[in-house]
Amino acid sequence: MIVATRPEDLPATPRAVAIGTFDGVHLGHMRVLEAARAAHLQPAVVTFDPHPRSFFGQQVELLTTLERRLDLLQRAGVEDVLVLRFDEGLASLDPETFAERVLRGVGAEVVAAGDGFRFGHGRTGDLGLLERLGFDVRRVPLVDNVSSSHIRKLLVAGEIERAATLLGRPPEVEGIVVLGDQRGRLLGFPTANLETPPDLLVPALGIYAGATIGHRTAISIGTNPQYHGVERRVEGHLLDFDGDLYGERMVFELWERLRDEAVFGSEAELVAAIGHDVARTREAVRPA
C-alpha cells in the first residue's frame, strides 16, 4: 500500500476514492470502501489527520491511531491512501478548490462517501456538488446506529461485545510497551505495560479477556487499587509467552469484560482472582 501526504505523491492513474476520517474503520466505513472497490478502478482512500473536529477545538478520543487506521485500511484491500494534514490551510479551502486540488489531483473519477459527507470551508460542500463537478458519486447510506461516536460511548461503558458488533472486529487498545512496577512478575503473572497515546480512547476500567500477537491475554485497565495506585494503566498478561517486549508497539484485542477492578483481603486472594481471570481468558470467544 502506498501512503502519501500530497496528491502529487501518488502515481497518476484513474482512481475510485473513498473519502472520510475512517476512525475505527467500522462496518459503516467498510460499506464506503466496498462502494469504491466496486467501481473496478484503482481503490484509494483520502483521509485526514488530526481528526477535523479536534482541529476545531472539540475533544475527540480516537478509536484508532493513524498507524492502526492504515493497517486496517490495507487489510480491507485499499491500495493507495492520501493522508491530508488537517490544518488551517486545508480548513480554509472552498469545496470546489478542494475537489480540484485533492480529488482530481489523485485521479479520482469515482468518489464514495457516506450520504451525509461534508467538506470544504464551513462544511459547505456535499456529494451533490461533486456530482455537479462531474464526479461519479457513490452515495453510501448510513448504517443504523453504526458510527464512531456511538462506538466510543459503548466502550466508555465497557460494552465490549456490542462495540465489536458495530466494528466488525474486537475493539482494541494500542500502545508502546514500557517498564512498569514489575509487580505482576513477582505475583507469577508478568505483564506488558502499554503507554497509550493521549488522544486514544481507553475503554472502561476493568479486567478483560483478549489477545495480542497470537497469544490470549488477560488485560487490566485500571489504577491497581490493591496497591493504592491512582494512575490509569493498561497491562496484559500474555498466556504461554516468555520474552522481552519492551519498546514494541502492541495492539490488545478486547474480547470480553470479565469483572470490575477490586481490592482483595490479601495478596493471596488477589493471586487467586488473577488465576481465575486467566482461566476465563483461556475459554473466551473472540467476538465478531
Shape: elongated
- CATH superfamily descriptor of the largest domain: HUPs
User: How confident is the prediction overall: mean pLDDT?
Assistant: 95
Largest sheet at a glance? 6 strands, parallel
Strand content: 25-35%
The total count of strands amounts to 12
The gyration radius over C-alpha positions equals 21 Å
How many domains make up the coordinates?
Answer: 2
In CATH, the architecture of the largest domain is 3-Layer(aba) Sandwich
Report the uncertain regions. none
Q: Give the SSE string.
A: EEHEHHEHHEHEHHEHEEEEEH
What level of helicity do the residues show? 25-40%
Look at the helices and sheets and give the structural class: alpha/beta
Kindly identify the CATH topology of the largest domain.
Rossmann fold
Strands in their spatial order, largest beta sheet: 1-4-3-2-5-6
| CATH level 1 class label of the largest domain | Alpha Beta
Tally the helices.
10
Instruction: Tell me the distance between the termini.
Output: 26 Å
Q: Care to describe what's here?
A:
This protein has 288 residues and is α/β, with parallel strands linked by helices. The chain has 2 domains: 2-143, HUPs (Rossmann fold, 3-Layer(aba) Sandwich), CATH 3.40.50.620; 171-283, Riboflavin kinase-like (Elongation Factor Tu (Ef-tu), domain 3), CATH 2.40.30. Helix content is 29%, strand content 27%. The protein is built from 10 helices and 12 strands. The protein has helices at 27-37, 52-55, 66-75, 88-91, 95-103, 127-132, 148-156, 160-167, 183-187, 267-283; strands at 2-4, 15-19, 42-49, 80-85, 108-114, 136-140, 172-178, 192-195, 206-212, 215-222, 233-238, 249-259. The strands form 2 sheets. Strands 1-4-3-2-5-6 form a 6-stranded parallel β-sheet. Strand 9 and strand 10 form a beta hairpin.
